[in-house]
Structure prediction request, 284 residues.
Amino acid sequence: MLNTADIPKLLKDAGLRVTPQREAILGFLIEHTKHATADEIYQSIHKTFPSISVSTVYNTIKHFAQVGLVKEITFGDNASRFDINVQPHHHLVCKKCGTLIDFYLEKPPSFALPPEASGFEIEDFHVEVKGICPACRESSRG
Amino acid sequence: MLNTADIPKLLKDAGLRVTPQREAILGFLIEHTKHATADEIYQSIHKTFPSISVSTVYNTIKHFAQVGLVKEITFGDNASRFDINVQPHHHLVCKKCGTLIDFYLEKPPSFALPPEASGFEIEDFHVEVKGICPACRESSRG
DNA sequence: CTCCTTTTTGATAATAATTATTATCTAGTG
DNA sequence: CACTAGATAATAATTATTATCAAAAAGGAG
Prediction:
């Protein structure tokens, strides 16, 4: 499990300079493991680090994504989310409230890729399962 | 296969009023089956239907999505795309150039959903496979 | 520690996608 | 034809993201 004590090392190993802003952002992502938006990261850090700016958050998470520290995911709500969990994993999302649950696949599904896909070098895949969570099913029962 | 002649019927069956704007948008989606953005839809229709407005496109595709006529998909490029919802299918996308290829799964993968997911009513799922297309592999070879 | 170079930061502006508002218009109904 | 709910167009407002660039900070050499 990732530990906040490792943050400077994580940054160095990724080839990034260690700055308070980066430590704060990485720390936030480690503690709030789940799918934060850029704005959520900014709002939270801003409380204890008032001088941090929005562009720093964007720059930093972009750097993190480039070096593989975080993974960017998007759902249908026009806001990118960032996930410290860089292991391959998948998402179950509620169509109504947006609740997100991670899950894993032991064995990958067998894709039947079409002829046009030949020559494609497959690197990874992501499964997004959609449905209605128990709470929303309850509240929408007529 | 969907036919543009069926458009009024498609709209009625979906419980939507038949208007020229809706016919145009649905017609566009049927003819350009693949993954158009809201702006692409607008730009194209605007040529032959100059009075149509951007918000009508957004409203209309949102309605279409609600009644299941189209499906919204997002990739990492902060623009939603809309797909005539024929049959469940999945996407192979090039990380470099964004090229998109549809593919199908005969049998769904078996998900190993975690305990937190119990009670979730699963409605559908989407697999996004990422990689590098042949053209981009070629051009990036050192 | 101090100087120097390079990188990072923060403030702001710019751009793009999307949503909200509202007056006007229209399809369907009687 | 008149009425009414719903649809459209124009516009403004929001929201997310990127670009610009001067000032500040990091890391290494001496």
